[in-house]
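Example record

One chain of 96 residues, shown exactly as stored in the release files.
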Amino acid sequence: MGHTGFRALLSRALALTNTEALWPGVVQVKADGTLGGWDTLEAKIAGKESAEASVVLIARLIGLLVAFIGEELTFRMLREIWPDVALNDGILVPET
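Predicted C-alpha cells for this chain:
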C-alpha cells in the first residue's frame, strides 16, 4: 500500500469522520501521514468529544481497511498492533 496509499486511506477516513463530527476541517492529514490540528481540536472541544472523535476515526479507518484488503488480513494486522485485544466476529473486545 505504501506511504501514499496510507495517506489516501487516512484522508478518506477523516473525511467520513468529518461528516459526523462538529469539527470538520480542523484535523488534516499531513504529508508524512500524521494528523495535524489534533491539539487545536482538543482545545476547542471537550475531552469526551475528542475521545469520541478518535474512536470514530479509527473505526472508519478499520472499516476502509476491511473494504479494501478484507476482514481476515485487517484483523491479522490489528492483532499484531493490539495483541491484548480479542477480536471476536469483527468486534474489538478487551481481553480480561
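Notes: The chain has a mean pLDDT of 81.
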